[in-house]
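Morning!

As promised:
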Amino acid sequence: MTQIRRTRSGGRIDRSQPVRFTFDGRELTGFAGDTLASALLANDEHLVGRSFKYHRPRGILTAGSEEPNALVGVTRSPGSGTPNLRATQVELHEGLSARSQNRFPSLGFDIGAVNDLLSPLFVAGFYYKTFMWPKSFWNRVYEPFIRAAAGLGVAPTAPDRDRYANRYAHCDVLIAGAGPAGIAAALSAAEVGARVILADEQAEMGGALLHETGATVERQPADRWLEAALAELAANPRVTLLLRTTAFGYFNHNYIALGERVTDHLAVPDPDLPRERLWQVRARQVVIAAGSIERPLVFPENDRPGVMLAEAGRIYANRYGVLPGRSIAVATACDTAYRAALDIHAAGGSIAVIADLRERPDEALVAEARAAGIRVETSCVVTGVLGRKRVRSVLLGRLRSGSVTAAGTVNADCLLMSGGWTPNVSLHSQSRGKLVWDAERGAYLPGAAVQAERSAGSCAGVDGLAAVLADGAHAGAEAAREATGTAHAPRQIVAEGGEAGIGWVLGALPHDRDAARVRAFVDYQNDVTAKDVKLAVREGMHSIEHIKRYTTTGMATDQGRLSNMNALSIASTALNRPVPEVGLTTFRQPYTPVSFGTLATTSRGDLFDPVRKTPIHGWAAGQGAAFEDVSLWKRAWYFPRGGEDMHRAVERECRTVRESVGLFDASTLGKIEVVGPDAAEFLNRIYTNPWLKLGPGRLRYGLMLNEAGFIMDDGVVGRLAEDRFHVTTTTGGAPRVLAHMEDYLQTEWPDLKVWLTSTTEQWAVIAVQGPKAREAIAPLVDDIDLATEALPHMSMREGHVMGGIPCRLFRMSFTGEAGYELNVPPSRAREVWEAVWANVEKLGGCAYGTETMHVLRAEKGYIIVGQETDGTVTPDDVGMSWAIGKKKRDFVGMRSLARPDLVAEGRKQLVGLLTRDGTALLEEGAQITREAVPALKTPALGHVTSSYVSPAAGRPIALAMIADGRARMGETLHVPMPEGAITVEVVPPVFVDPEGARLNV
Amino acid sequence: MTRFSFWELARKALNAHQDWGDQWRKPEPKPAYDVLIIGAGGHGLATAYYLAREHGVTNVAVLEKGWLGGGNTGRNTTIVRSNYLWEESEALYDHAMDLWQDLSQELNYNVMYSARGVMMLAHTVHDIQVFKRHVHANRLAGVQNEWLTAEEAKAFCPPLNIGKNIRYPVLGAALQRKGGVARHDAVAWGYARGADKYGVDIIQNCAVTGIRRNADGLVAGVETSRGFIGAKKVGVVAAGHTSTVMDMAGVRMPLESNPLQALVSEPVKPCFPCVVMSNTVHAYVSQSDKGELVIGAGTDQYVSYSQTGGLQITTHTVDAICELFPMFRRMRMLRNWGGIVDVTPDRSPIIGKTPVPGLFVNCGWGTGGFKATPGSGHVFAHTIARDDPHPINAPFTLDRFRTGRLIDEAAAAAVAH
Amino acid sequence: MLLIQCPYCAVERPELEFRYGGEAHIARPESPSELTDEQWADFLYMRSNPKGVMAERWRHVHGCGRFFNALRDTVSDRFLAVYKAGEPRPAIEVSAPAAPNKETGR
């Protein structure tokens, strides 16, 4: 027998389209338009999950996103399921495969349920009081046990292959929630011509209108009017309707994040569609029309499968054509549950009793129910249910002046309950709007707005369909007026039916049971009982935040949507303080959980961070270069030939450069054009070096400090003309240096006439280094005299290469060999590179990468900012006092260099190191000590900053920063390694051509 | 006070747990104390606890404008490690690490210190150099830290993607095996209960509005929302609000308060065995005992006391998590929140005396103060009790910003070449 | 994400286009060499870090590239004014009522 609880007719499901799905491997059938929850209920399946802590059997409690119990894992392909989905939100599609969670071996028989037997021990906060002995057991025994028992679903194990998309959007009015208030707001706002986004988390728009079968709007049945209203909105090009889209976060300055689930409801998703889409909306005005949420009653065994919120029962009956049980009891403190009972009755359900807590509920409602043949008991409280995996019967009690006497048992397999309604103030609160306690309604309502938002409809405490529609229309018109400046009367919408939710109760209900033995749940998923809340208060947890954290109430995946008000009320009673004085825990984003995929959108792989490639990149890749990541750039690291490893390739490249010529792509260096009459003065203030007297056509190595006196960047600067400099920076430092320069120029020295332009992408840089460098480029240079007399080391000329390609030709070296850097337009760079390459190849040269560049410069003792320096190093520390203009009265960082610690004895200084045995290669980062086996916690003298096998030196070499290093030349020190210390000798940090003779060939 | 134990739990269960008492009292403030601590976060409560326990200074009150443990203590991602670079930092954080080992037993409160290992990923050649420098320095200092290849890192944390298909492939990692996590609330509660046991008054909902000094310039007490409270010594442990409190004493601080965000996923069964951090791609993740993935995001760029930050900060972190752990794209963010962190120019804390006699400050922990909680409280208590810093916190003076003797842990993330 | 008005471009743009520049109106001393270490440290490091109205620098780095100043309430993150570099701080001292969060008593 399938779908035995399906009504004969009615509902918004498509009975002509059966849909097959599986739950825990069992094949079941529902209809198109069902949720997983409604389809399970149609098959009379209430037991859907297990609770977090006690592993108690749990059923379907709600019909919406606030569901705490019926969480399932939905799998599309092996290893790639999504855990913890609410069955109430999962739309049924053909072949849907869902599994229950947090149970072993099966949902019906779960070993973890032993925790339920131990629940007298496992009260709130129990783990803070035990599991401490023996100490070693925490990591080995207790924690693994706790971890295994905790958690809900199973995380996916296979990489997610789906795509996610991102949209930025702007609108005049964003409306969160497309129930009656939201739709009325949209109609009114759209009438003004406002750009409107209307978003709703459900599969259909309409909210309560989808199940208000008795109500009429504009004298039509509610669903008929809804259809027309949605058609009107859909036809308006200024209105965007977003289904299955949750406004989950309300951020600063009216920035709202929406998560759209695009394809999860489809059996065969269109591969062109993303699975989910993040909308980041800047809205001029926001209308929050998030509705209200029915509250459970807190009575013993209120968590048994079959216990359900009353309105949820009504939704299942009216919208999905499903009766939530064979025989249904109703327990309520609120009028709306009568409507649920009557609708279910009308749909063919059997209502065993309506037990109303109130002494005198609305007489008309009671009369209507009784006229339908429904038994109504007033002053009647549910004191428990019998049945473990499904409600079997309901215990009733008679309330008289606060005390309860047993009033019999009613056979029922379903209990619908209503404790009244909690306005959904989450988004308003996220926007940092205030909340106001309304003692009349027993609810927090939105107070003054802080951002450009307003709440409308039942989330603002407005009751009844007609009033909600009017409030929504008014809010929409007001929001549109403020956003667009155009005033327009709100749409008048006449409605009848859809009664107000009068009546409520908060906190634990009185009962006649043995208080020590029964448990009434406040937070279902986290298994927090009324007793837990009271225990927390007893133990001194008086702040509501302490209560929340100690008991974990409100911390489940429904974020306390069902539990917070009851917990608050119980705490308030225990503390003997009125509810508003107890406080309220913070509403945090996201409103409902959002997949990481939605948040990460398209950001993966190469889209995680932009990849910067030089114009030579393709050539290098073609040569089989290995690349390294340096900031955003991909830099050629080395060019292995014929199966060489890095070590061999680098050794060959190094030798080749020193013997003949090497070609190096230096395009990633940052470049800044500094122009203007005060350009030299500006550089004089920014760099440690003097610039005023540098002649046009000359280059100078520049050292830049931060204001704290520490080296922040370096690079060669060329003076093109009196008023024009070509500045280079490190690869990673370029944006930082430009920002640094702009900062000083704009805010400290706005009087200087200087303009800064990033030219990093305007010049590709081809470095040609080695004794045959001139030979390699000479045939290609059109109009620049390369003779050393005409173009000595550290000078530059502007001219052309290869018949008219503009070139800024620098004669400079970062290798210690004679060298040139050809700055050419990137569009022509590959062509120039290949021409130079042809010559280099003929001369027996090679291309080399960053590793060889590092070795060659280390052989010469040239520092790399970020390798020899680490943000704590001064020019003197690296032996570069020569780079400081002695006559300058000020430059950035100069004053800091005079601070006590920067002139103190014992600072770490740059030196060279040679290993005693001449073969051991030191590890970069290794520490240097006086003793071979230093006592523990002996401060090291310093560390190895660079270490390479030097083909030129014929042995490994290293650079190091060592305390008082320059005074230690010749000293023997030690580099302790795990396998023993390496003995080293301190030497000057220049290993090749200390006189610099090779630069001037 | 009842001693916590399994047997006590079982005994109390017999009477339905009706017999548990307050974990800490709710005293009215006395007119004066020997020491006032401003701020009942982990560091402030630990300070009070060690003042009483180690130094016999029990006439102490901890003033808290909200609820104890409600600031960064209750908002952080609870990572515990000590593999810092500089000797000063190594000493401080490893001191805390030593105290973590027995903290549950010491406090008779299970703080769930879980030594599951903290692994820091290297994604560039520069990262490797920096992390190896840490490993070597730490070894000499007796601080646990070891270098792992990418394959070893994967073996230690199986979900880790060490493929070359990500933007910044994992090249290796530094691992501190005794690093891990602890239960943040329990740390605050354990210290509160412990301090209370020695007679320390913890006064919540008591906002400090002024610091009073006598004619000689010495601290005389504080003005609060509950009246004036006298004190011979005042210790400010107010994290993001330190500048505001110190301003009441006319002391300017080298601090900026920034929003710092964190988030958790929905709880799932155990799927993540350790803590993984990556400075390069900005991701910090572990799995709580409850099953939530706990993820630390970055700071917003501006000063703010709003305890909220931008979505772009959160999404950037989630981007990084999904790069490193591509199976987690189907996990879902459950909660996202913000705290206010006080950041110093060298990213190291300030613990010590101030220009005002009798006024002490412990601040500037930035994004990483939780791990230091026991050590921080321990040395700060010493500093207050003796009016002289403990050798471990002696370098962490306010004066270092004058002399330039900075302890720049940001150097670890220095300029990439 | 903040929405920031650039006073040069006269447009509101998302925070992504801007780079924060820290506290405003901290002028670099004319003659640093004449300052004591204390005075220099004050300039380098000491910040008012106010809870309330703060004058701060922003740079429209992905727009016009210009630095400007803003007054912002650091409790509500609401901007009270933006003004060009070099202009005096507007005389707005009292912020609009901050947005204390009633739930947690911040």
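The first strand of chain A starts at residue 14 and ends at 23.

Hope this helps with the figure draft.
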